[in-house]
Specification:
By secondary structure, this protein is mainly alpha-helical. The chain has six helices and no strands.
């Protein structure tokens, strides 16, 4: 687990984590500005869930990962089971939320495209008309 944590802690991880929050926030604002209230609400809901994901990651996951890294080289840890038990309980509990974050944020991000984009898709041969 230490190796996995070390390999993902980079600029791309931060960009993706914060980028989801920024992208959904911009999408909500643009939809609101265009007068698409329903789409703005869906994008706003996705943005709220991105905030929850950020809070869980920064408030729980990253500190747990840092604690695990501070334990040192696994080959030199005397009580590996104790270190694992201390890390595993909190990490498993918070990461059980990850599928819920994805499931609840997914529908907001997958909301049908409004206006011209929907019309262009409906005019393509073999694509069902949007209602």
């Amino acid at each position: 687990m230490q190796h996995i944590n070390k390999s993902i802690e980079n600029g791309m991880f931060g960009l993706v984590l914060v980028g989801a929050f920024l992208a959904t926030g911009v999408a909500a604002w643009l939809q609101h500005k265009a007068g698409r209230r329903r789409a703005a609400l869906w994008a706003g809901a996705a943005n709220l869930l991105s905030v929850v994901a950020l809070m869980v990651t920064m408030g729980v996951d990253i500190p747990l990962n840092s604690e695990l890294a501070a334990a040192g080289d696994p080959s030199r840890i005397h009580d590996l089971a104790a270190v694992r038990a201390k890390f595993e309980g909190g990490w498993v509990a918070t990461n059980m939320l990850a599928p819920h974050r994805a499931v609840h944020g997914g529908p907001a991000r997958a909301h049908p495209l409004p206006g011209p984009a929907r019309t262009r898709l409906a005019l393509k041969p073999g694509v069902a008309r949007a209602s």
